[in-house]
């Protein structure tokens, strides 16, 4: 370009500082930069590298040496972080739904849960991005943005696809679609900007007056004003349209998203207390004997007995115990009638009471989520239980454990 050495050095310095900040904020930022910035950097460096390669001799040898050093540095970094990389790349995550993911990318649907699919969401930006991609692909200097966005889309589809070897490429993002989606969004925003410029080029006009026979019907002044305003201000018209269409198309979707986060009966993860459940927990100190210890799955609300009412619980927080009896109990509680070790652990902990939440609607909006551990904590056979207190709808119950009497 026409920029001088000082301007280029300033731009490169700012870009380098930004890259350092991205990587420092989170290790995954390095992979994000590789996906979005890799094609841009390679396209910018390609002409200079090609010239050096063609000159041969010492310059070609220097290029090969620099490439070898770069590969060694990458290999050394990967070896130093091998344990972290192995845990990330091997993170267990079930396969997703490819059609759902494609639709979510096109309409900007959230990918952490499943919502009503036919809302158009922010499809207008996708249309502009596709128009921008067509324009950018025809321009060598802008084609790199198509490549970066395409790589992001491929990664998100790999994360959503079945368990097959290429899926490991999405491993740096824990094979989670929602972690990759911001890369797609950034690429689409750049392409949408190019799409607006292309729309102005195609459909915008200057001050040309319509030509034709003088006898032809002359448009009304208001129509001529509207056509002139639209053709001369295509970006402004697109902005106004997006301010109307995007909220309208996304309103119902936004309602479902808020329900999946804030509505106790619709929350994607059943961790929010309803009014009746909160009332049961608050009266637990008077319902249970002094010093009672309650067992329950911390993901269904039992942990709130400790934080809200001061009643001791076996599992006061959701994370999986690091090991020992509590981890074993979370996997084998349903064996209480056949395995004496269960009652032994309960006696050691003084746990004689049990909390259950059978609300079927939990997660109805966002696609219900199973706890990451401790599924056996929800499967204690009711034949070994005696009800102590319950909510009016019978969904939440405090029990006394009778199997160990």
Write out key terms for the chains shown:
five-stranded mixed sheet, mainly alpha
Description:
The chain has helices spanning 5-25, 28-55, 57-80, 82-89, 98-107, 123-137, 143-160, 177-203, 221-232, 234-262, 275-282, 284-287, 304-309, 325-332, 340-349; strands at residues 293-295, 312-313, 351-357, 385-390, 396-401. It is mainly alpha-helical and 405 residues long. Among the domains are: 94-205 and 220-260, no CATH class; 275-401, no CATH class. The chain has a 5-stranded mixed sheet. A hairpin with a 5-residue loop joins strand 4 (385-390) and strand 5 (396-401).
Give the terminus-to-terminus CA distance. 84 Å
What's the count of strands?
5
**Strand percent estimate:** 5-15%
Sequence of strands across the biggest β-sheet: 2-1-3-5-4
Largest sheet: 5 strands, mixed
Broad shape: flat
**Helix content estimate:** 55-70%
Whole-number mean pLDDT: 83
Order of helices and strands: HHHHHHHHHHHHEHEHHEEE
State the secondary-structure class. Answer: mainly alpha
Question: Rg to the nearest angstrom?
Answer: 30 Å
Low-confidence stretches: 361-367
Question: In a few lines, what is going on in this structure?
Answer:
The protein is 56% helix and 6% strand. It has 405 residues and is mainly α. The longest helix has 29 residues, at 234-262.
